[in-house]
């Protein structure tokens, strides 16, 4: 009866509380005389009220954080402006959702009109570092694709959007694809698979959680699109890292302790997630109205030895000892160029256990050398057995074929790069003719993949759009001319790759010494391109191409770099200013200009505003703080300089340049003891810093410590054999301290 009384009171309007706040577990349903709400429905009302309240609180928190400038834009693309028109720019913080900011990878600069030019062709490239064009995107795969299509579709504007990023994988590319639907590209090209194990959520990653992201992880990724989620994530990371130095990107060496064998059951999860992500990417492209080209992945199988091998796990002590002896016998015989003995040793080891990647690779090389067709399968097996899985394996390429084969009628094309590279390679196995190392293309490799891509693009385009196109593709030589490829550029890239390959895990690969010899020969042949007398002719190559493409910021950037390397500061500045005119948001070019200007007392004042602009774009960039500190120190603004060096050190405790320049600044102030501390810290980071050794030598000269000065100058000569100051000191000639 109590319930009836309450119902009557509510019906008559004599009770002022809201109807869903009944005391006895049942309430009136408004508008229906005598009706009651069950206890279950009451909890629904309460839950909705709680959700509404939480929404109000979270909305207020989100708005407050945005007003306070906390967090960052989460999409791959952000709006910008160039030349007075709206454009799409890349978001340098995009990868922070998937990896710690200090390890975050940055997309290539993008400036794309929001409103497309009528009749233009827009091609989107999605993938990882190989697709991006590492080690030098100026001559990489997307640029070659653009060059080929421009020449073939003469008179039509072609835009190839480089949306590939280093160190990511399909989990991240899936998110990039969703955001890139708004670009309204005609064709999407998907070339990915090398980082499925080592990239975010892979079992061999260094970026945090391992294992394919389930519902909760994806919910967390969605939450980090909000400022509230970003704030909570940052708080959690700061608490977890309390008392620890921030991480910093250290290249593939970071992955040495993250090996994954071929039998690891987690690889099944990797393949399933890869297939799911690839299907989502394809559907995103199709829903955006694009034709989608999906490529299998070609890798260096013939000349890139496995990075990691699993010692036979199933052998007892005696059998393992026999295996090791047979393997060593084979290696010793091979070193003596005794192919028969090497095969005997390797085959004996293979009989006991055939799961060792390096053993399989060595045997494959011998098979190829003797013309044995089994070499093709052996090289592929060696790649698949590699426990440091930086290359797409056979299973992942089969997933690509499964997803993309025979779907042309649906607007999806398969681009079988793996098969095409094999057909065009020595012994049917791709190697150094196409690749710098394990996956990154030399120009001939980029050209071959771009030819395959171009053919697929033409096949995907409607016949009406191909009217008037050229009959064939331009040659590799013509592509080189249009990209302004020079001996200077080739030398710079090769020299940078040699430095990369001298570090683990490359330096521990089988036949690393042979590769060093090849690189030295290559650099010797290219060295004429970096001689002063070679500058004028090579600069003319750029100028001729810029006369045809005056708005190509990449050409201006490369010409600026060449001016800088030949000591022409004014020429470099002139070109880089044009880059900023064409790409107002370009961060790296400001850092380049600042670094060059900060190196000299007379130009340091010009460096400061450029570096402050760069810091405004990316405040948490240790390198910019370090160079700004150098520029301030050269202006004798020592207090400000020390603050910048300290900021750099907090962000990157292992940043060599920050410690060296801090030491130099302190020495200029006359604070020898503090200067020595930072210079010695620099040598803890890298014993091969000639600049740190040089300034330690100068400090020792000032202190009258001849023996210490000799030791430091000796290190300078070890690293820079022609350095005159060190030669004069060690030769006994007088030297000004």
Outline the structure in words.
This protein has 737 residues and is an alpha/beta fold. Among the domains are: 2-67, no CATH class; 88-240 and 264-302 and 398-418, Rossmann fold, CATH 3.40.50; 317-385, Alpha Horseshoe (Serine Threonine Protein Phosphatase 5, Tetratricopeptide repeat). The chain has helices spanning 2-12, 39-67, 129-132, 141-152, 170-180, 215-223, 227-240, 266-287, 317-335, 339-352, 357-369, 375-385, 394-404, 417-423, 443-460, 476-482, 487-501, 512-526, 535-548, 553-565, 569-582, 588-598, 604-617, 622-634, 638-651, 656-669, 672-685, 690-703, 706-719, 724-730; strands at residues 27-28, 36-37, 77-82, 85-90, 111-113, 121-127, 158-162, 187-191, 291-295, 412-415. The strands form three sheets. The chain has a five-stranded parallel sheet, with helices on both faces. The chain has a three-stranded antiparallel sheet with strand order 3-4-5, with no helix packed on it. A hairpin with a 7-residue loop joins β1 and β2. α9 runs antiparallel to α10 (339-352) and α24 runs parallel beside α26 (656-669). It is globular and about 75 Å long. It starts with a helix and ends in a 7-residue tail after the last helix.
């Amino acid at each position: 009866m109590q319930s009836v009384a309450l119902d009557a009171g509510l019906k008559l309007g004599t009770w002022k509380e809201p109807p869903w706040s009944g005391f006895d577990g049942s309430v009136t349903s408004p508008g229906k005389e005598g009706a009651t709400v069950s206890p279950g429905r009451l909890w629904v009302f309460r839950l909705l009220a709680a959700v509404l309240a939480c929404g109000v609180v979270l909305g207020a928190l989100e708005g407050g954080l945005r007003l306070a400038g906390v967090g960052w834009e989460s999409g791959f693309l952000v709006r910008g402006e160039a030349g007075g028109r709206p454009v799409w720019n890349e978001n340098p913080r995009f990868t922070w959702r998937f990896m710690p900011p200090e390890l975050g990878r940055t997309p290539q600069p993008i400036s794309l009109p929001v409103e497309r030019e009528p009749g233009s062709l827009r091609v989107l490239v999605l993938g990882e570092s190989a697709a991006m064009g590492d080690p030098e995107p100026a001559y990489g795969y997307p640029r070659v694709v653009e060059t080929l299509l421009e020449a073939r579709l003469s008179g039509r504007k072609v835009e190839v959007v480089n949306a590939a990023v280093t160190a990511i994988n399909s989990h991240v590319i899936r998110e990039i694809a969703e955001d890139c639907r708004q670009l309204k590209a005609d064709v999407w090209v998907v070339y990915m698979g090398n980082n499925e194990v080592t990239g975010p959520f892979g079992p061999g990653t260094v970026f945090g959680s391992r294992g394919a992201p389930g519902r909760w992880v994806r919910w967390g990724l969605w939450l980090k699109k909000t400022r509230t989620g970003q704030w909570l994530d940052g708080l959690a990371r700061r608490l977890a890292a309390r008392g620890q130095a921030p991480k910093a990107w250290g290249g593939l060496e970071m992955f040495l302790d993250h090996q994954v064998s071929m039998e690891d059951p987690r690889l099944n999860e990797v393949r399933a997630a890869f297939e799911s992500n690839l299907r989502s990417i394809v559907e995103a492209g199709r829903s955006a109205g694009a034709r989608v080209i999906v490529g299998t992945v070609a890798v260096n199988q013939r000349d890139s030895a496995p990075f990691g091998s699993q010692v036979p796990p199933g052998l007892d002590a005696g059998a393992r000892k026999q295996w090791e002896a047979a393997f060593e016998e084979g290696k010793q015989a091979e070193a003596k160029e005794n192919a028969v003995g090497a095969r005997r040793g390797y085959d004996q080891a293979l009989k006991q256990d055939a799961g060792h990647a390096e053993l399989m690779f060595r045997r494959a090389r011998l098979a190829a050398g003797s013309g044995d067709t089994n070499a093709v399968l052996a090289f592929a097996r060696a790649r698949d057995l590699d426990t440091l899985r930086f290359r797409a394996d056979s299973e992942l390429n089969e997933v690509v074929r499964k997803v993309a084969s025979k779907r042309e009628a649906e607007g999806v094309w398969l681009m079988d790069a793996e098969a095409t590279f094999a057909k065009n390679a020595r012994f049917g196995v791709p190697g150094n003719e196409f690749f710098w190392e394990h996956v990154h293309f030399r120009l001939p490799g980029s050209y071959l993949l771009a030819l395959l891509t171009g053919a697929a693009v033409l096949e995907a385009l409607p016949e009406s759009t191909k009217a008037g196109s050229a009959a064939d593709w331009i040659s590799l030589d013509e592509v080189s001319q249009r990209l302004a490829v020079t001996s200077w550029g080739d030398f710079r890239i090769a020299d940078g790759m040699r430095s990369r390959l001298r570090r683990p895990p490359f330096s521990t690969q089988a036949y690393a010494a042979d590769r060093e010899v090849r690189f030295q020969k290559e650099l010797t042949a290219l060295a004429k391109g970096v001689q002063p007398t070679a500058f004028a002719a090579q600069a003319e190559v750029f100028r001729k191409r810029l006369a045809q493409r005056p708005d190509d910021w990449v050409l201006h950037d490369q010409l600026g770099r060449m001016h800088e390397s030949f000591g022409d500061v004014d020429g470099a500045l002139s070109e880089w200013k044009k880059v900023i005119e064409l790409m107002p948001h370009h961060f790296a070019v400001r850092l380049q200009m600042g670094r060059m200007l900060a190196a000299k007392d007379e130009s340091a004042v010009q460096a400061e505003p450029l570096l402050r602009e760069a810091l405004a774009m990316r405040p948490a960039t240790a390198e910019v703080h370090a160079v700004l500190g150098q520029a301030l120190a050269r202006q004798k603004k020592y207090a400000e300089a020390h603050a910048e060096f300290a900021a750099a050190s907090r962000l990157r405790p292992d940043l060599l340049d920050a410690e060296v320049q801090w030491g130099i600044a302190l020495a200029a102030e006359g604070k020898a003891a503090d200067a020595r501390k930072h210079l010695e810290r620099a040598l803890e980071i890298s014993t091969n810093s000639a600049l740190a050794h040089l300034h330690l030598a100068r400090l020792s000269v000032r202190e009258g410590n001849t023996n210490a000065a000799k030791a430091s100058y000796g290190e300078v000569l070890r690293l820079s054999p022609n350095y005159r100051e060190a030669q004069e000191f060690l030769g006994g000639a007088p030297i000004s301290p």
